[in-house]
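Entry 14. Structure prediction run on the chain below.
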Amino acid sequence: MRALLERIAAAEAGPDGLNAFISLEDPDRWAESDLSPGAAEGALGGLEGVPVAVKDNLTTLALPTTCASRVLEGFRAPYEATAVRRLRDAGARVVGKTNMDEFAMGASTENSAFGPTRNPRALGRVPGGSSGGSAAAVAAGYVPLALGSDTGGSVRQPAAFCGVVGLKPTYGRVSRYGLVAFASSLDQVGPIADTVERAARCLEVIAGADPRDATCSRRPVPRYTEAVRRGAKGLVVGVPEEYFGEGLDGAVGEGLEEARGALEDAGATFRSVRLRHTELAIPTYYVLAPAEASSNLARFDGVRYGPREEAGDLHSMVERTRSRFGAEVKRRIVLGTYVLSAGYYDAYYARAQRARAVIARDFEEVFREVDVLWTPTTPTPAFELGARTDDPLAMYLSDVYTVTANLAGIPAISVPAGEAQGLPVGAQILAPWWEEETLLQAAAALEAALAGERDAP
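Output returned:
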């Protein structure tokens, strides 16, 4: 493990460094005996000795938790996130905290106070976001498994851009305790991995009831690793017409068509379906998510924790401390405060909640006909660094195919599905609520059908 940490540190310090990590574990402190009590007792097992990277908005005891923001620079949490603790109890070894868009607000990992992360498949391009550091770390071979958070596609979109697997579970399947909140009704912890089976194994470990999170389900956790061996035979896969129209890059569409053919050859049946209110997804998401963010980020005032900018009075101190927020975070706080303000709440926030319910009903109806849905993960391959930093709307549209899963709360996964313009393409598969077994079955079948076509970065 010491050799691994030294190799990562050397690679990151080199001219082709990805800037995938904000902090790395100290090799001198990281003795082989430095395991959690649960791991020492063999409480769960299954990931013994596996190196894992953790997105820097999940609290850890050994390393700082900064959310890639100067507002939390150097902050050390007094407790550990449930998902992280469960991984350590299963024997996994946390190697470091990965770079991200500040407070998970972004689609490119360019909004980090610690600089942008680069895509290991093309160093001049973004790795996606906001979990871009985690996806880059897996794609580069630093670690086989990483944790990210997914509010509107922030696990799946970077997984697609980097050519790895990204899984967003059903809302409530994994505890959010220790996840620094962006939009509490949308956030979900999920794995980014080199294979579907590894993602399934991780989900087995981190899923399950947690008394510290009132939104976490008490449903029993299935054996997800068994689902990956079931194959595609008998699966009915829906193809929503709304996801394959204007805006989808032609090369991405061609890559998905080839991957679809491989899954059909493996025994799956495809049929066309409609999700009639998909066009409401982006405007709905960008009302609800900023509204929740404006409430959640109000706690970062320099009074309770984190750095404080001293001033002559309380108001000036809070104002100067909050000036540490980056431009994108400020933009979303202002937008969220506006839509929640008197006179605008009913016009924007309440209407967005009704639209969210309509989007969820679309999925409820279509899942009566099909087992899973098949869509692109992103409309284009990874774009160049700096290409969209001055155009927030273009950046937001990177999530056009992923936000619906968060609004409805359903599970979704991105699986590598070929290339477009020499860059990875991701196929997104969505399943009904709590049907991660079916989701992983379809994802593993696709991975097997395309075996041998994935290139190492």
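The two ends are 22 Å apart (CA to CA).
Filed with the rest of this week's runs.
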